[in-house]
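Follow-up to my earlier ticket, as requested here are the two runs.
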Amino acid sequence: MSQFEVSDIVQQLHQVRDEWRDSQRRARDPGGREFPSRDAMTQVVESLKGALFPMRLGPPDLRHESEDFYVGHTLDSALQSLRVQATLELHYVARHQPRDEAAVDLQATAAVREFGLALPGIRRLLDGDVLAAYQGDPAARSVDEVLLCYPGVLAMIHHRLAHCLYRLGLPLLARIVAEAAHSQTGIDIHPGAQIDAGFFIDHGTGVVIGETAVIGKRVRVYQAVTLGAKRFPTDAEGNLQKGMPRHPVVEDDVVIYAGATILGRVTIGKAATIGGNVWVTDHVPAGASVTQASLQPQSPC
């Protein structure tokens, strides 16, 4: 006999689950898993990282002569697993609507096919991110060190994959991929954020980039930078209006130093510099430099 009233706890947990499922209009017996698995998506992403960078993020015993075989085998397995998870998400989204299961399955297959075709372009973008980190950090000794060690690059690998899933109508899978990187690096990039080529996050811990942020080419940010929303519009009933543009637009060649907070749908102009620990809620002209000193009231003397 258990010393911990396990049977009673099991019954109470069963009751709590039923109450939650009823409140969320969930089936009591859905006949299988209703939504995607974080563990399964973790395996998919690890496989995709190996397929994108086989000699550096693939298995330690891989040799050049078997590189293409490894990539093909790994990619096929990863995309098959991703299709299963995509199907679960699409069925989950449609659970309260009349649905044609075959049509949902075809939609999932088409989305994953498009995702697979996007991988060469994602690799090119990531090569640019790695090069930007190497060129932007005097402590970096090689591009390989950057790829293997830098948390900002790991976050961008996840983001480039997650953003593609987001655009293909798989936002839950995208969020799972993004939050895995958040957990590992402390860098929180919403998969909806649009980030152009050559992006470098130096150090990285505490960086937050919101869903509707738009970031141009060759932008560099440091730790604890926030590109966030200033306010959240609501409808007539007080509910948050989701999906509206509410995060900054950062144009090409901008540098944002540690601890800066930029809020709202403001534009940071091309080649502007935002100093450390400043709070920005207005547009910044191209080429401008914003520092704590520049934001202080001027003495009348």
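Run two:
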Amino acid sequence: MKIGVDVGGTNLRAGLVDGGQLIEVIDVNCPADGSEQEVMEAIFDVIGRLWIPSVMGIGVGIPSLVDAEKGIVYNVVNIPSWKKVYLKEALENRFKVEVGINNDVNCFALGTHCYGAGQSFQHIVAITLGTGLGAGLIINDRLYGGNNTGAGEIGCLPYLEHNFEYYCSNAFFKRNYHCCAADLSSKFDEKTMVRAWNEFGQHLGRLVCAVIDAYDPQAIVFGGGISRSFDCFRPAMLAEVSRFPFPETVRRLRILREETTHVALLGASLLIG
């Protein structure tokens, strides 16, 4: 038995995992604007609610750069009080079991590779589309996080007047349509929605081309809230990808949506050997 935890600025999720199966999941609001200790107590609480004596370890995915060896997290996205937090030490002192800490999108990459849409591939770029744009790398069947667990963060690459995250996340919809992607259907007519998704898909297609240039993966797997609308942006994305100068590379690439529920929790549990 292991516990996987996914810490976000909005939600805090934890799951009890047994042999790759989620036995129970708890999803609560994260007190993101609270003090460092208030956020820590919320994590303690959600783990405690799942705790049973047979738990052998805890894996945590968190949206920040991470010193994975020491379990220190730095400047956590959307949790202002978490500048430098010794999370591994705090959890090990509290629960007396092994603890693994890594970037949240790296946990998504691990989860999709072992339990989800990426199971058939050795080389994967896993991309999450939501409030921001995150990415994790699987190379030769192993997670590659780089020196600070930040390898593959393609959202920071320069693109047009800003970077890819500016055009390939909810920032795009909020800037142009004053709502999140999930709210388009309740605020706009079909013609406007199609135009929005087509434009978003074009930007995403250019992101995919950049991923091909950088990593030449076997598969790109999309997750995150916006990926639920995969069929809406997929045609425009693929049209843009079809313009990549090496058609055989495109033909051999698989572009998939992750459909396994809470795959990042399963990935977090894999941080424990």
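The only thing I checked on run two: The first strand starts at residue 2 and ends at 7. Let me know what else you need.
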